[in-house]
């Protein structure tokens, strides 16, 4: 077993290093390392077909609980979490349909018109919209469209879009932490530990909501000089494009809104209805493809299959750590370091998660830590939910601190750079790092007060 543990740990470390170096596409990295885990660790060293089957976890798809259950099965954290894969795929298809119908561009232009194209109200409104949309839609998609529209408005209204893009990125990550479907780490935590949309909304949602108020004020104070300068520019608002121009097809737009509304309702009520996120993701996919039948192939071609493959490979590598008992060792170390003190345990989890997620992808970190906190809860006699909320806020918010900490950061800065607004590490971290510390601290204090 010792050799298997060493090899599993080595494969995991190599995978992390290759992801950070970013020289090879990350889905190739995780799939290659996942295959090594199955063949070398489980097949050759452990000679355990059972470990291979447990990690592949294909049998879970054919069980009734995968599609319909009172709550998500906590056993899904062993091996590949297919519920996460199905759900993310469904959301990707739905978002592509909404983009095709012009929903995001219409929403941005409509909101800009409502605040009469004034830079300061626009700044605040776009931050709030970024956080709200990211509660239901992947933050990458939110920033992709929001940053593009921000640059367009900046050119028309003659202001620097960098402050607005930086604040939008942070708020998208913050909004994503509020719900189960907002950020990939939350999807993994929810499907693995059996938590519902409402569980996240009433726990991490509360922390995100309180933090958002302070963060809006924080970013306004940081960028108030640039915003006040922009307010002085006199611009003819009558020349601004009509939001209706963004709607390419009224029928498609209506269908996209209905599908999005139904998806939100199903997610909010899935704990009561028993519909699992795997079921919801599958239904969303089918309905979207039927509604946009004439361009179904185009929608499917735009799905980010590389991310889905990345998840599959990642789960296999983490399965290697789980099957060889390494995660139990890590849990034991945290337990000893905290000496059974719940507050110290929470502080370790939330700050280690935040710091790690600032420099490495928060998705593999979250997937790795889930079995660790399960083991901690079992061995230290602490509430698993408390540790889960600490892990969620740490991984979701920690990624906001640097330009490479979360995918939304990379996308937002890339959109700005393509339009001639290069955002360096110094510029990014100067505003985002203190904001990250503020939110992580607020979250930790709220967890202390509410759960300890």
Short précis:
This protein is mainly alpha-helical. It has helices at 2-21, 26-45, 49-56, 64-67, 82-100, 103-114, 119-134, 139-157, 162-176, 184-193, 197-231, 250-273, 277-291, 296-302, 305-323, 326-338, 342-359, 362-380, 384-398, 407-418, 425-451. α1 (2-21) runs antiparallel to α15, α6 (103-114) packs across α8 and α8 (139-157) runs antiparallel to α9.
Estimate the helix proportion, in percent: over 70%
From the spread of the alpha carbons, the general shape counts as: globular
Total beta-strand segments: 0
Total helical segments: 21
Subcellular location: Cell membrane
Membrane topology: Multi-pass membrane protein
InterPro entries: Arsenical_pump_ArsB, Cit_transptr-like_dom, Diverse_Ion_Transporter
Transmembrane segments: 6-21, 28-46, 80-99, 120-149, 200-223, 253-271, 277-296, 308-334, 340-360, 432-451
